[in-house]
Amino acid sequence: MLNLLKSDMYKIFKRMSFYVCLVLSLLAAGYTVWTFEDTIRNMYKKQYGAYASMLGLDFDSMTAKDFGITAWSVFSQSVSNAILLSAIFVTIFLTSEFGSGMCKSIILRGKGRVSYYLSKLVSSITVPIIYTLAICGVSFGIGAYRYQGAEWKEEYLKDYIIPLGWFALVTISWISVICMVCFLCRSSGFSMAINLGLVTILPGAIILAIMYAAKAWFNVTNIEFAKYWIGNYSNVSLYSGGMQNDEMMAMIYTLCGWFFVPMIIGILSFKCREIK
Amino acid sequence: MTEEKLQVCEDDDVLVRTKGLAKTYGNKKVLEDVDLEIKKGKIYGFIGKNGSGKTTTMRLILGLCKPSKGSVEISKDIKRSDISAVIEYPAFFPNMDAVTNMVTQCKALGVKNPKKVSCALLSLMGLNPKDRSKVKNFSLGMKQRLAIAMSLICKNDSSQPASNDSEGDKEVEKNSSDEDKGSSNENPTESLTNAEVNTDTEADLSLPDLQYPSVLLLDEPINGLDPEGIKEIREIILHLNREKGVTFLISSHILGELEKISTGFIVICNGKLAAQFDAKDLRKKVKGCIRLKTNNNSKAVEILINDLSISNYRTEDGEILIFDEGINTSDITKKMVENDLIIESINSETGNYEDYFIKLMGGN
Question: Which listed site, A13, B197, B238, B275, has its alpha carbon 20 to 30 Å from B28?
């Protein structure tokens, strides 16, 4: 499997689409960080605009420092893009193996299908991790340049670094889902449509549909289905400031479920189906 | 977890054997009870009509699909990784160049010195390793050559000193990393010696760490090749077979080409094995004849029967067609001249393989 993994990593770094998605994620991150002050100002205006004169505040004249914006507070603001762009790249990467016939040419040389699947999964997992780290690095750099405040404080560990670790776990689970979809569909267009749908617009609709079905057919109203939906954990700011134990356990179970169940489905399907 | 379990064939001579191989898709029987043997060192022409089950047989041998019935046995002397193939269509990443495509495959198979091996195999197949253009821009023939080059990649022996391997690769890697950084003038092959990047086939084949698969299954390998390309591929196949002991199973509809290189034939018709025989048997099965025309054919027939003991003949359109074996035109000419007969024409014709195969394939 190590050889397959080496080959997959080599392929990832030789693919132009990897760098295109990386650049897009960095541009999005750069834009988000650069305009973060205006975003916060507009948010404040929207929320507290009516009371601004009563409170003696003039949001237009407030600086980033007044809003508490530092390089650290912006460094993980855009990491959600890593999931979207990883979904795009990983879908291209995995389905191209089927489209080009390379999957066939590896399997026919006696490489095990489980090894093949796991190699693809592990190599794909590195993609959002690289994107996340690159986004954080660029965001921090731009944040440090634009907003200053790059000095380290102990509470940042809990507020910004640990949440990033949780986010990494979420991305790993996402990749497992994306990988399963690619191995099930095999066609690039179909896989791309499903994966993009999953990471963007479908989650809300799926949760609503599940809740409706549970209520209508089983009269179940007391289960928070949203709590067990992987998309629910995709926002890094959720973990800022720490989590309660029960929240953390629910999250760990959810992420493990979303990692292992798709992985098992993907492996079983790949083992059983023919390779065209 | 790396290699799928296989049934072992105990026969020393046989590399791959199928036993009662059958494949059914829904209600459609694609293959039925196919028993074939691929013996060591041979080149098999795999013949059958479109949809007769050639590719399915190959796919089953390669483990790309599971048989509905029967089994595939592989010699104890080889591993599944020793069986390679170009099947259905050439497999590669169209947006990568040939060397990168080759290196991905080398890495996946655990080949040492992946760039060196890739360049050598590309040169062997008549492709320029220095050509950095994307494979999608290749002609059909070049794609076919690349696919064969990729199928020739085989895990090389670890018997070579590790230091040599790493040194060689270091040199190539150094060059390659320069290239990856955007220097288009640099090339991984530039660090190789002249002999190693020489486009001369002999030089490339003699690379010390270049190993080849034991069995190579080629599905329509000469599709899209120009006559010169066909000749080159034929020569490479023959060289690999004779010098490196690679056994081939080649499916093709170009019977003339198969006849030139095959030492055995496997004919499949409507999912059933129609015949498997050696090339020398084919020559017996497809008899040639000598066509003779004299100024007196009836006297000539008498001479042939009495003096040359010919028994298998017929007359047709004023000519005598002689099918007996072991008789040649010079013997006949000598006898005719001795008996004062004037030979108007005499020529030796080889048998019509094409008709024979078409008949075996279930055609008219």
Answer: B275
